[in-house]
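Structure (tokenized):
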């Protein structure tokens, strides 16, 4: 009956992780502040709602390149032409490049995406009810990871129990049935989370998504980049420059 010692932590892991996910789902479902009436989105706001901080960094780089104040090379490097930023986001890009006036675009994107200007933009949108607050996104994401980890743990413990010698008092089929209960619970929670909680892990709230849907991305190249990402860039060299060295974060 030593296999029961493997079953008990499986049940506990499933119960705790699924309970945590349920609490995160309840927190995500609470209505946030109502957005302002008749509110228009700027390109930067649309970029954040559509793709998050890295989309904002991409849009800022493309805007500065189009204004001939920054040169984006297809090799993945950016060179400063005009060292004066017109707003906080452009100044954050220049700060990420540094005093040398040249830096790899992947490094600039990371620095600009983590800058105070982007965090302030995110806070304004969350306060207006258009963006999902970070605490909600982080809570849902960490809870989903916990349920995935519990499912892997249950699978490992179940396999260990099934192949444990000297457990003749119970058939392997019955043992597998016992372990399938917490496993089905965790997999079911993941499936429900995929369908029901997924909208809350996006950057835009339902109200923000509604505003994004009303934008005319065909009329302005920068708006197209804000909504659709780098794939909307019509210049292949600029598109190559922005996609060079991108592994962990994609805003396309």
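Design, position by position:
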């Amino acid at each position: 009956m030593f296999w029961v010692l493997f079953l008990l932590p499986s049940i506990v892991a499933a119960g705790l992780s699924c309970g945590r996910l349920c609490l995160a789902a309840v927190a995500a479902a609470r209505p946030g502040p109502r957005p302002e009436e008749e509110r228009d989105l700027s390109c930067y706001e649309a970029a954040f709602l559509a793709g998050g901080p890295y989309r904002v960094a991409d849009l800022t780089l493309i805007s500065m390149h189009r204004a001939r104040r920054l040169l984006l090379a297809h090799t993945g490097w950016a060179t400063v032409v005009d060292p004066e930023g017109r707003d906080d986001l452009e100044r954050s890009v220049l700060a990420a490049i540094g005093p040398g006036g040249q830096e790899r675009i992947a490094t600039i994107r990371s620095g600009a995406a983590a800058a105070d200007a982007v965090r302030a933009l995110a806070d304004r949108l969350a306060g207006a009810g258009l963006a999902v607050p970070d605490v909600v996104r982080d809570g849902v994401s960490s809870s989903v990871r916990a349920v995935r980890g519990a499912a892997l743990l249950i699978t490992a413990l179940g396999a260990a129990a099934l192949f444990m010698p000297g457990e003749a008092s119970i058939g392997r089929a019955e043992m597998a049935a016992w372990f399938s209960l917490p496993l089905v619970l965790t997999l079911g929670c993941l499936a429900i989370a995929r369908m029901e909680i997924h909208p809350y892990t996006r950057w835009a709230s339902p109200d923000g998504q509604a505003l994004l849907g009303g934008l005319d991305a065909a009329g302005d190249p920068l708006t197209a980049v804000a909504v659709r990402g780098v794939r909307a860039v019509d210049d292949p060299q600029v598109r190559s420059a922005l996609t060079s060295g991108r592994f962990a974060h994609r805003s396309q």
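Reviewer-requested clarification: The chain has eleven helices and three strands. The CA atoms of residues 92 and 116 lie 8 Å apart.
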